[in-house]
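User: I would dearly like some help making sense of a protein record. I have put the entry right below:
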Amino acid sequence: MQGETLQEEPQERPSEKKEAFAKYTAKDSVFSTLFRDKKYLMQLYHALHPEDAETTEDALTDITIRNVLTNGIYNDLCFRVGDKVMFLVEQQSSWTMNIIVRVLMYLAQTYHEYFEEQDADLYGSRKVHVPEPELYMIFTGERAGRPETISLSREFFGGKECAIEVKVKVLYGGKGNDIISQYVAFTKVYNEQVKQYKRSRKAVTETIRICKDRDVLREFLAGREKEVISIMMALFDEEKIMRTHVASEKKAASKETARKAAEKMLRDRKITVDEIAEYFSELSVEDIQEIERGMLQTVS
């Protein structure tokens, strides 16, 4: 209409946009995504057992502990080759001997699930079948003379023989162009880009570009570049959300503690309802009214 001006839709200002940054677990995310694909899992198996030319993808079963809906243990990668061998593969960027203990826990859980799946009678007289375990750690940090194998007895019991032993073979990559060496190379490129661009989208996209140029995980990265960028990225707000959640949990716990203490003091006649607010600032008027109603119901 004449004499009126159309109002433009309010535009989101750059300062209002959520800042994207690379996840702290970006390399872990790529590891998990890479080896959930049977094609690359097969390449991993061949890197571990290059002498085996007979095993096919169909023989590989992913049995990684994920615990999506609970807070139980979970590991990086576990797979079985038929019913003969069970592989546990963990990836670490920082050196820790505690990985041996964690692998032991993962192995016990994995065997537990296997025996349940097989409906094995562990209390019967007939010996059950136990897949042979092979335990590995892919270490993506600096090797600096670190060992090829780490063991529970050596690291935790001074080398003495004990009732249980766990040996983990450490893989450092750098031997040819197998999938393990490519993954380790990918992590090193990513670390370099983070040093230059911080944990930004630029660091992620440059990592992908450089790796493709160097023939490092090229097929994997080229075939699902958008997906890889997505799994490596997070919203800046996630950190704020987590801080808020933690603060909220602490506040709720503090309020519950104050509530119980107030109820006890009322029962012991150490304070009156009118004095609750004076002693317990965490409790709101509504909280005090609810406590009062509860006490009255108890009396009646």
About this structure: The longest strand covers residues 85-92.
